[in-house]
Amino acid sequence: MSFKINQEIACCGGKLLKLSHQSSETKTAMDVNIYLPKQYYEEGITLIPVIYYLSGLTCSPQNATEKAFWQVQADKYGFAIVFPDTSPRGEKVPDDPEKGWDFGLAAGFYVDATQEPYKTNYRMFSYVHEELPKELDSYFNKENTKIDFLDNVAITGHSMGGFGALSGYLKYYNRYKSCSAFAPIANPTNVPWGIKALSGYLGSDKELWAQYDPCSLVSEVDNTRQSTILIHCGTKDPFLKDQLKPEQLQEAVKNTSWEGKIDLKIVEGFDHSYFFISTFVPEHAEFHAKNLGLI
Ligand SMILES: N[C@@H](CCC(=O)N[C@@H](CS)C(=O)NCC(=O)O)C(=O)O
Predict the structure, then answer these.
(1) How does pLDDT run across 29-40, given as a tens digit for each residue?
(2) Which of 184, 168, 287 is nearest to 239 (CA)?
(3) CB 234 within 8 A of CB 184
(4) Which residue owns the Cα nearest ligand 1 atom 18?
(5) Is residue 245, in this structure, part of any structural domain at all?
(6) Ligand 1 centre from 20 Cα, in Å?
(7) pLDDT at 1
(8) Which pLDDT score, from 0 to 100, does residue 133 have?
């Protein structure tokens, strides 16, 4: 299956492409944005690495595309950045029966649902980590490989997407070269947003929940590369104490191969918004650029 280019927009030194495609995982059309940095359009550049950015609750691919200012950093270092959607969408896709904004549409939580009525469409884990990278690779690298969607890749995200980045990174430790997160839901099995989503999508089996919880995964995944995970959270984030709980991840890594490897920065005065995210995107970009071999 192929991508449709809905918009091609000149941005910084490169181009922003707003794409859509039919997903066999979610069985819906999915929107995805990609920024191709200026290096993509230059002669003689070797493979361009990719950062995947997973967005938070209520977001589409547009929020981060418009408000995180990754594009400037992508040009500075020479990586592409992919902004997937946060859930399947469409009239036939089941939503939260309570009509909340923390479950269902725009709240897919990057897991593969096992429960009715969600299991047919809510396959965001397999979509983001398997189907989307492969589809992008076959679409963009038809004639020769210019963008490395599959190997020299990093992952990051915000809030629900910070959780998605952490869990995806730990489950695909040998693929992602680095992981960072902005205000992630660090211990989803232990907070209201996570409990609602995991019970809705995965049912009551807490062992299945644990397979996605970064606080459980750190004791199962051996950090053989001695990698550091970079995390920023703001002190004025209204969700910090009850929903994000980054300190639980610090606790969980004790006596594991990740001990001392969570670089958690609690920054004074910042909230949960894109003003916070865009402030720290340059630091995350530099962190990933180093791990992707760009500097
Ligand atoms: N809609 C919620 C806020 C949800 C929220 O803060 N969502 C974050 C991710 S968890 C976000 O990125 N929102 C979109 C934006 O700021 O552009 C509320 O009214 O309190």
Answers:
(1) 999 999 999 999
(2) 184
(3) no
(4) 101
(5) yes
(6) 23
(7) 66
(8) 98
